[in-house]
Amino acid sequence: MAMFFEHADVSLPGETTVLVRRSFKAPRDLVWRAHTEPKLFQRWLLGPPGWTMPVCEMDVRVGGAFRCLWRSDEDGKEFGVFGDYREISAPIRLVHTEFFDAGDGADKGEGSLQTLEFQERGGATTLVSLMDFFTKDARDAAVATGMTDGMEASYALLEKVCAELR
Amino acid sequence: MTDADRLDATFAALADPTRRAILARLAEGEASVAELAAPFSISQPAVSKHLKVLERAGLITIGQDAQRRPRRIEAAPLAEANAFLERYRALWETNFARLDALLDELQGKPPKAKN
Hints:
The complex is a heterodimer of chains A (about 170) and B (about 120). Chain A contains 4 helices and 8 strands; from the N terminus they run ββααββββββαα.
């Protein structure tokens, strides 16, 4: 099966999971580096326009921690994600936990477990990203707010949704 | 039901492959419980259970015919769930488009003209 996902493909394969797939015209090594080198990661995982990632730290080894912080140019709002690496098979497979940090040390919840696979074929790489949020409510909240991987434009919306889910 | 509850019910209903198959069948036109059960290797009561979940999520309704009680698909909640997923997808695509440009740069390709 050699599918090329020219645009992001999102599906809900299970009750607690989200699957995102996307292909890139680049060798697997580079796509891997773009996910594991802070200087590269900071340049693309920024969400909507107007957000930057001033902090990105990655200790890419099993048990090592990572931390990213986003900031809004407009109003200075900040939020972040953090977690630790569970499995590293460069440049094929990366598994890590991820927790949301609203910037106030608030309830971190159960977080999610993220499994990224980098499949290379004919010089192109397909990224297969499976995110497991452990509960359906958390999964739905993540989808509804676009918060996953810290791409939250307005975490006020997230708080609202969480309050409604409680 | 709040928006979140409704979305919750919709996603729960859509998480099951049998229920997705039932919806696919109903997308072609209304059908009775017996007609819906026919293509599946499960009992009518099991199909009824799935139908109840779909009904609670507002994804299907029961038609006028009191004898057949045909089920029919309701488009609105499906469209709402799709809208959420589409917004989520678009957010990812924004990131991935940036990653495309970064990967091009790392490979020494000239930057693409923006449309």
